Amino acid sequence: MEFKTDTTLENLRLDNAVISLCKEFSRSKVQKMIENNYIKVNSKKAKASYKLKAGDIIEIIKKEDIKPAVKAQNIPLDIIYEDDYFIVLNKQKGILTHPTPLNKENSLVNALFYHGCKLSNIQGIERAGIVHRLDKNTSGLILIAKTNDAHLNLQKQIQIKSAKRKYLAVVHGIIEENEGIINKPLVHFMNKTVKMNIAKEGEGQEAITHFKVLERQEDTTLLELELKTGRTHQIRCHLSSINHPVYGDSLYGAKGFKSKINIKTTEQLLMSYYLSFTHPATDEFMEFQLNESQYDDDFKRFFNYLKNTRRK
Questions:
Q1: Catalytic (active site) residue 297
Q2: Rounded to two decimals, what is the model's pTM?
Q3: Which of these is catalytic: 135, 249, 296, 298?
Q4: Strand 139-145 vs strand 270-278: parallel, antiparallel, or unpaired?
Q5: Cβ(99)–Cβ(69) below 8 Å
């Protein structure tokens, strides 16, 4: 906010003038804002006792107006679909969905800013456009909102479960049941910011994962999974809790398993391969599914292994 000093403010102390202009601010808050350079005069730092002159420009910067910088980076985007309301991307493995306190670069948001995409901003600049997230080493389909209305609409569809998200995962061990439901609430493990754990009864956030066996091969099982809730690391933690961690997932116990297929991967063999929802503007049913040529390199190696095994 900017104010030009007129005769009513002339010769007033800066702090008194700001209090008269912004009645929601207390004196102590104004003095602290001046001290921290959130209130300037003629674009320069000024003291609370500064006597205003006619024509002085008072600049008041509210904390909510301060935007953290997001560096635009030339990272390739695999755009599956785009219109004026949203984008469906095929996220590559090894890239963050959005910047974090420890990693400000090399995320989808950094890439989207470089490519000049219009993005929703209701979650702040560091999560611009992000309707839902994928873990760094989980690849596949992800929704990006361009407008705030589209963002709220798509987010609501995920919350009420009318939007469907399906994943492919390769897990260690043979799962005997053809399908099942894992319904176990989750909490942060040992107060860590990333790793999750199964909560004690009556605690944690509800987390429900449906799974269906697609193929059993050697000492691994290929699963299709559908999320009914969207907690951090939900699939990875749930599968580990039934002693079938995702292949390559060192955070959730995969290092304790040896496998006959012996495929080298960049962490977990987990991919978001299917999305369906209603278009936020037209109500048209939208459906997207990756084909094998669009899978990440780790999954391509796994499916090549399956093909070669089936021929024998």
A1: no
A2: 0.76
A3: 135
A4: parallel
A5: no
